[in-house]
Amino acid sequence: MVWSFKPPVFIVSTKAYLWGKMALKLAKIVEEVSKDSIVNFIFIPQLVDLRMIAEEVDIPIFAPNIDPIRPGRGFGHDLPEAVKEAGALGIMINHFERKKTLSEIDGCLERAREVGLYTIICCDTPRSAAALAKLKPDAILSELPSLIGSMRSISKEMKEFAIESIKLVKEVDEKVLVLLGAGITCGEDVAEVIRLGADGSGASRAICESKDPKTLLEDISEKMEEAWKQVKG
């Protein structure tokens, strides 16, 4: 598919909440909601589900990891070429639940660029967001660890963290998108993130555990679009 990484962005990640047929069902719902939205939805499944889902939906699928290895030795590691061939358009690395060293992050970015994958780097402080922005990923996802999976939104609980993350990253490189996550549960949470100046957001638990994910995603899309138009005119 032809796709460009531009805001506003919303990431739906299954983590280990959903897999297989359940993850595919959610991906199809995301695809349906995205058709009438200006929001750039990204779907991140379990790596083992990536090829199946990428072949079934027309939305950007990102991998939850790669490792800075090359073809050859690397048992148990995630080869960038294999991830790309499976259908991934990009990667997310260094999530708080799967941390990497700075050297590994740098190596992953190098390998991602070599094979043509978009890049999102996660971080857990505004200062680390600024430091990682110097590596020039496509986006930084800044999340407060204590709020991840908590159902308590960063836009309500830690506005200072959010504002500082945006400020410091944009001072380093205006082109790097700043995404703010952790505890996002509804459209208003996302709208507030956009009003604070972010380029997007994302959620896992609230969507994966929802009894009506389509209605929730439609609310997120609608509120996010309204806020984006207010901020950007």
SSE layout and pairing:
Elements: E1 9-13, H1 20-34, E2 40-44, H2 50-56, E3 62-63, H3 80-85, E4 90-93, H4 102-115, E5 118-123, H5 126-133, E6 139-143, H6 154-157, H7 159-172, E7 177-181, H8 187-195, E8 200-203, H9 205-208, H10 213-232
Parallel strand pairs: 1-2, 1-8, 3-4, 4-5, 5-6, 6-7
Helix pairs in contact: 1-10, 5-7, 8-10
Task: Kindly describe this structure.
With 233 residues, the chain is α/β, with parallel strands linked by helices. It has a single domain (9-232), classed as TIM Barrel (Alpha-Beta Barrel). It is built from ten helices and eight strands. The chain has helices at 20-34, 50-56, 80-85, 102-115, 126-133, 154-157, 159-172, 187-195, 205-208, 213-232; strands at 9-13, 40-44, 62-63, 90-93, 118-123, 139-143, 177-181, 200-203. The strands form two sheets. It has a five-stranded parallel sheet with strand order 3-4-5-6-7. The chain has a three-stranded parallel sheet with strand order 2-1-8.
Mean pLDDT across every amino acid position: 93
Which structural class do you get from the secondary structure elements?
Answer: alpha/beta
What is the fourth-level CATH superfamily? Answer: Aldolase class I
Unreliable runs: none
CATH architecture: Alpha-Beta Barrel
- Write the H/E string, N to C: EHEHEHEHEHEHHEHEHH
Broad shape:
globular
> How big is the Rg?
16 Å
- The level 1 CATH classification is Alpha Beta
